Amino acid sequence: MEITIGLLIIAIGAFCQSSCYVPINKIKDWSWESYWIVQGVFAWLLLPLLGACLAVPDGHSLFELFNADSSFNVLMTMLFGVLWGVGGLTFGLSMRYLGVALGQSIALGTCAGLGTIMGPVLLNIFFPEQNALASLTASVIIGVVVTLVGIAVIGLAGSMKASSLSEEQKKEAVKDFNFPKGLAIALLAGFMSGCFNVGLAFGADINFGDLTPDMYKTLPATMLVTVGGFLTNAVYCFYQNSKNGTWGDYGKSAVWGNNALFCLLAGALWYSQFFGLSLGKGFLTESATLTTLSFCILMALNVVFSNIWGIILKEWKGCSSKTIAVLIVGIVILIISSFLPQLI
Fold first, then answer.
1. Is residue 164 a contact partner of residue 320, using CB atoms and an 8 Å limit?
2. CB atoms within 10 A of CB 71
3. Which of 174, 154, 144 is nearest to 105 (CA)?
4. What secondary structure does DSSP assign to 245-299, as a single string?
5. Residue 188 has pLDDT above 60, yes or no
6. pLDDT tens digits, 265-277
7. Residue 134, Cβ neighbours under 10 Å: how many?
8. What percent of the chain is modeled with pLDDT above 70?
């Protein structure tokens, strides 16, 4: 029963994440770089800080976790957060050229597979005594492979879409649709985004041990990763503000109330995925396989819900029934991949 609850919580977080781009459509009179960094203040700084505070028991301070003994792990966690930030930037571009459904599918699929594998591999290089590679069991590998198969099927549906629609139909569904360019960017985004899970692996022990409930233990590490990602995004967005002359966006008082509200909502929906991941893992402690695969499961469910949004937003409008059938098969495979390890 606890495993079911854990997977359900992760699924709710995935649904929230896949919905986070909907509020952005309500933002008015701001350039991309301006609203991206403002929503990032909520998604990558304020909300993760509040989440991390839940891991702090009474009589203690969050800053006690960042001491000399944990300095290496703290720095590595933030470093991989900086690298993940690159993935976050290119992630947005992948959806610009492929749409919400296909862009998230390819990027998150790559992120799911590589993120799950890279964490134990890199952790083993720095801390071989922990034997982190032991977590990559046959069940974990099978789960990752099935997830990637589901992503490949959805990618095939995307390729079929690209070849079957006219240029006018493509532009109607996704204004800047460009499959080859979008594919390259999505693969890069997925690879760099996988660094998020690597950061979580290095920060796994940054908590108060038995004093911190299992469901909150990864929240301090999550905060460190997102702070690192915020730094990357801030540098790029402020550069774009200077390049495009859009610093004036922040002075448009008439739209600040509206835009701040929807940036907060988008940030909260985005952060929900990793808050849900932490809570969900607290219910998966009886299954080492599902604990290791939890990040992969989250990404797979993100893809499922993003494609549902893609259908709602009519990004697949005009495609043949065969293309839609292939898409549905890919979604079903991803859903199965979330539960398959428990059945092996």
1. yes
2. 10
3. 154
4. T-GGGGG-HHHHHHHHHHHHHHHHHHHHHHHHHHHHHTT-TT-HHHHHHHHHHHH
5. yes
6. 999 999 999 999 9
7. 11
8. 91
Q: In the structure encoding, which two tokens stand for residue 282, read together?
A: 């607290």
Other beta carbons within 10 angstroms of residue 45's beta carbon come to: 17
Q: How far apart, in whole angstroms, are the C-alpha atoms of residue 303 and residue 186?
A: 13
Instruction: Produce one character per residue of 201-212: b if its CB has 16 or more CB atoms within 10 Å, e if not.
Output: bbbbebbbeeeb
Closest CA to 34 of 225, 192, 252: 252
pLDDT at residue 208 in the model: 92
Gap between the Cα atoms of 175 and 239, Å rounded: 25
In this structure, the number of other CB atoms found within 10 A of the CB of residue 178 comes to 15
The token pair that represents 73 in the structure block: 């792990």
Give the CA diameter of the chain: 64
Residue 228 has pLDDT above 80, yes or no: yes
Q: How far apart are CA 244 and CA 33, in angstroms?
A: 9
243-256 pLDDT tens trace: 999 999 999 999 99
Model confidence, pTM: 0.84
Cα angle 245, 247, 250; round to 5? 150
Answer whether 247's CB lies under 8 Å from 241's CB. yes
Could you tell me the two tokens for 42? 């909520």
pLDDT band at 154 (very low <50, low <70, confident <90, very high): confident
One-letter amino acid at 183 equals: L
CB atoms within 10 A of CB 174: 23
* Cα–Cα separations (whole angstroms), residue 74 to 33, 42, 46, 281, 313: 28, 21, 19, 21, 40
CA dist., res. 198 & res. 115, Å (int): 6
Please say whether the beta carbons of 27 and 267 come within 8 A: no
Q: Is the per-residue pLDDT at 59 higher than 60? A: yes
